[in-house]
Amino acid sequence: MKAGEDKLVQRIVKALAPEGGPWLPLGVGDDAALLTPRRGYDTILTCDWFLEGTHFLPGKHPADSIGWKCLARALSDIAAMGGEPRCFLLSLALPGKLALKEKGRGTGWLDEFLDGLRRAARRFRCMLAGGDTTQRREILINVTVVGEVLAGRAVLRSGAKAGDRIFVSGTLGEAELGLQKLRQGARVSPRNDRALRKHLYPEPRLPLGQWLADRKLAGSMMDLSDGLSSDLPRLCAASAVGARIHVAQIPSPKVPLSASRRFDALSLALNGGDDYELLFTVSANNAPRIPHSFQGIALTEIGEVTREQRVVMAQQDGTTKPLLPRGWDPFRK
Q1: Kind and range of the H or E run holding 212
Q2: 328 occurs within a structural domain
Q3: Three-state DSSP class for 252?
Q4: What is the phi/psi pair of residue 306, to 5°?
Q5: Cβ(93)–Cβ(245) under 8 Å?
Q6: How many distinct structural domains can be found in the chain?
């Protein structure tokens, strides 16, 4: 068993080719890594599970997208604080057969998984520093990311104030639409389908988060991983405020006419998870400084922060109703 695990670790290290640096004097190869924080920076720590049957579906999700997404979703937490990623730890449990190359093929599941993970690590400049491996009947992945942000510049959920404007990046609900297409056996290439691409290969908004933090524009911020209807109340609770959002201003996905009976665009935008966009608040004075887009990503004002500690939606007819949290909740029955 030990020899097999050693070979597995060697394949992971070879695939990800981790390199040290002045802030990571010791990476993979010892009992633990050594990290030297930069002077004048705070360290950000976050971790994320990615589980077979819960976060991805065997036989539906390509192995390389699982590798990409397990890191990208964890990096979204770094983006939400305005930070910059440095390195990550990978804990991987998988069936022994998946660690083997398939007969008659050049690569197997593990090679494809590591290829997606390697591309994400290079794309977002976050190197492997260590981790752990074991064998299990189903695939369990845990990623821990270390990031940095200038001391005192981290953007928290708790900084929203009454009168602030509420913004979101991107289009909400696209990833959920992509998941539903995947469940229904979509054969369209992610390259040609925006919703599938966003679900399978999400892009954490790291440059946007850093831009907002560096310029002290965002008073509060978090990433949208569970859906706007669930995440916005969390930000409001942390800041002891409420919110009023406008239905007409929420950036919803374009649902194909053939699927319009099955999918409601507004419901997808409010309750769909996995978007990994940024939700942030900006003071009324600074709101005009927020552009309509940042590096090709739309930035949309969707409402305002209120003193009354409840979250409501303003309808197009002027009436309001409570925003019920109907996003992703692993403990909901």
Answers
A1: helix 206-214
A2: no
A3: coil
A4: -120, 160
A5: no
A6: 2
Statement to judge: residues 249 and 309 lie in one domain: yes
Q: Read off the pLDDT of residues 299-322 as tens digits, 9 standing for 90 and up.
A: 999 999 999 999 999 998 889 999
Domain boundary among 150, 169, 188: 150
d(CA 143, CA 230): 23
Taking only the tens place, the pLDDT of each residue in 164-205 is: 999 999 999 999 999 998 988 766 577 778 999 999 999 999
Which residue in 230, 23, 16 sits closest to 143, CA to CA?
16
- Taking only the tens place, the pLDDT of each residue in 252-278 is 998 875 655 677 999 999 999 999 999
Distance CA 230, CA 226 (A): 6
**DSSP 8-state symbol, 198:** H
313 occurs within a structural domain: yes
Q: And the tokens for 98? A: 């998946």
Q: Which two tokens stand for residue 102?
A: 């398939």
- Residue keyed to tokens 């390389």: 64
